[in-house]
UniProtKB/TrEMBL annotation:
Provenance organism: Propithecus coquereli
Signal sequence interval, chain numbering: none
GO function term, MF aspect, one: acid phosphatase activity
Name of the protein in its database record: Magnesium dependent phosphatase 1
Record SUPFAM superfamilies: HAD-like
Top-level lineage group: Eukaryota
InterPro entries (UniProt xref): HAD-like_sf, HAD_sf, MDP_1_eu_arc
Database matches in Gene3D superfamilies: HAD superfamily/HAD-like
A Pfam family per the record: Acid_PPase
């Protein structure tokens, strides 16, 4: 069997979703009753269609995932990630005491 990576890191804009979170959508984001994530204007905000399957496959193989981005809209990007993590609880390891899902780094001076 091929060796698996120790960690899969994904950019956000134009990797997980087809837009720049700091220019093409308007935070804050919310999840509608039907499960659709929408921005302040009511515009649907979606992941690329392949993303859930890729993340589920990595999770099934035991490969942890992380997000990295240079966006200036840190709060909005984190809010979108939370919306999608709660849409797919199997991706959210926040109940794991060793998980770092909630860690937010705003620049190069993180610990």
């Amino acid at each position: 069997m091929a060796r698996l990576p120790k960690l899969a890191v994904f950019d956000l804009d134009y990797t997980l979703w087809p837009f720049w979170v700091d220019t093409h959508v308007d935070p804050p984001f919310h999840k509608s009753r039907d499960g659709t994530v929408r921005d302040r204007r009511g515009q649907d905000v979606r992941l690329y269609p392949e993303v859930p399957q890729v993340l589920e496959r990595l999770q099934g193989l035991g490969v942890p995932g992380a997000a990295a981005s240079r966006t200036g809209e840190i709060e909005g990007a984190n809010q979108l990630l939370e919306c999608y993590l709660h849409s797919c609880p199997e991706w959210n390891e926040s109940s794991n005491p060793n998980s770092r899902v909630g860690d937010i780094c705003k620049g190069p001076n993180w610990p």
